[in-house]
Amino acid sequence: MSLEQLADQLAARVRERVLVWSRAVIAFDGFGCCGKSTLAQAVAARTGGVILETDDFHQPEDGLIEASSPLSYRRWSALQRAATALTRGRPARFAPIDWDTKRLAAEVELQPAAVVVLDGIGSHALTLPLQPLRVFVDGRAVTRMQRVARRDGPEHANWDHYVAIERAYFERFRPWRTADLYVLGAELDFCNSAEGFARQLQAACIVTTRLDQPYRGEDQAGNTPVDR
Predict the structure, then answer these.
(1) Which three-class secondary structure string do you get for 4-69?
(2) Which residues of the chain have pLDDT under 50?
(3) What Å distances lie between residue 210 and 144, 162, 168, CA to CA?
(4) Parallel, antiparallel or unpaired: strands 181-184 and 133-138
């Protein structure tokens, strides 16, 4: 199934919910750089939905970590308020992160729509007044940093700090288990699905290493790096 076909089917399911409840929420969770935003934007374009991106709620450099946040780099209370407001058909006001300065930008206001699209890591952990359609997007783990480098530039392809926080979230919540739909995202198909993040996290032998980088050690002859 192509992305376009999947987006068509998800949009149809969302519209069915709107007919029943007058509003609908669809939430895309999954590992970074695996295709969540591409799919979320496609569904929003087909439904006229408003997109709330969890990345907008990144902590600024001088921000205080919220003890209750499933992801320590998220301003969880602000994200929860914005998502709740949109779900109830009200405007959402918040200050997004400015990625250039790592400080909060001027406050913005998102207008509500019949369809609310939540895009980003942590979206399945939100507590909402309307049950969302939960979509989990997985991706091929070992090539993720290559995808990041192609998308954002090689200087951004080192997420050591964020990977540890992200992994703790997924190990705790395992959102692929409670999702309404599991999607084989970036570079995954049925043949190599075992190389996805979710499957690897469930493998007991891979619980202490990074999943999104190839092995980078020396072999016995002193050659580096070796991918396996």
Answers:
(1) HHHHHHHHHHHHHHHHHHCCEEEEEEECCCCCHHHHHHHHHHHHCCEEEEHHHHECCCCCCCCCCC
(2) 215-228
(3) 11, 11, 12
(4) parallel
pLDDT in the model for residue 205: 55
**CA dist., res. 129 & res. 131, Å (int):** 7
In a 10 Å sphere around its CB, with 0-12 CB exposed, 13-18 middle and 19+ buried, how is residue 217 labelled? Answer: exposed
Rounded to a whole number, what is the largest CA-CA distance in the chain? 65
Counting every residue, how long is the chain? 228
Q: Write out the two tokens for 119.
A: 């895009």
pLDDT value at residue 69: 92
Q: State the DSSP string of 148-205.
A: HHHHH-GGG---HHHHHHHHHHHHHH-GGGT-SEEEE-TT--SSSGGGBHHHHHT-TT
pLDDT of residue 211: 79
